[in-house]
Design a protein that fits this description.
Helix content is 30%, strand content 18%. The chain is an alpha+beta fold. It has one domain: 2-Layer Sandwich (HIT family, subunit A), CATH 3.30.428.10. Bound molecules: zinc ion.
C-alpha cells in the first residue's frame, strides 16, 4: 500500500521531523493551518483510531504534551488545538492515523480549513527550534 506517512517513516519521502522514537514520529505539516502545525503518528500503519488498541491510542496521545511544549516555546503561540480526524468526511486527508497539534495565536482567527503555503527554509528553521524546545513531563 502506498501511504505518504509510511514513506516518511521509512525515509523514502522527506519531511521535517521534530520527534522520533522506536514507535512514533512527529513532523511539520507541509500545509499548516497555523505556523508550527505539526502531526504526531504511530509508525505502524493504521487508518483510523478505531483500528488501534486502547494501549496504542494511549501511547500516541501521551506523546502530545512533550511535542506541544516544544511547539509552544518555539512559536510563542498563545494556545493550541489537538485534532484527530477519522475518515474523509471528517477531513482526514492521509489515511494513516495522526494527531494534529495546531498552535493558535491571539492576533489571528481560528479557521480549520484554510491552509498556508510554506517554504522549506521556514519549515526547517522552525523544526529545529521545536526540537530544541521539547520537554517531557
Ligand atoms: Zn501509513
Amino acid at each position: 500500500m502506498d501511504c505518504l506517512f509510511c514513506n516518511i517513516i521509512s525515509k523514502k519521502q522527506d519531511a521535517y521531523v521534530i520527534f522520533e522514537d522506536d514507535s512514533h514520529i512527529a513532523i511539520m505539516d507541509k500545509y499548516p493551518i497555523q505556523k508550527g502545525h505539526s502531526l504526531v503518528m504511530p509508525k505502524i500503519h493504521h487508518e483510523k483510531i478505531i483500528d488501534m488498541s486502547d494501549d496504542e491510542v494511549g501511547k500516541l496521545f501521551s506523546m502530545v504534551p512533550t511535542i506541544a511544549r516544544g511547539i509552544m516555546a518555539a512559536t510563542g503561540a498563545d494556545g493550541f488545538n489537538i485534532g484527530q480526524n477519522n475518515g474523509r468526511s471528517a477531513n482526514q486527508i492521509i489515511p494513516h492515523v495522526h494527531v494534529h497539534i495546531i498552535p493558535r495565536y491571539n492576533k489571528v482567527g481560528n479557521l480549520w480549513t484554510r491552509r498556508m503555503i510554506t517554504n522549506d527554509t521556514d519549515l526547517d528553521d522552525l523544526a529545529k527550534k521545536i526540537r530544541k524546545n521539547m520537554k517531557s513531563g
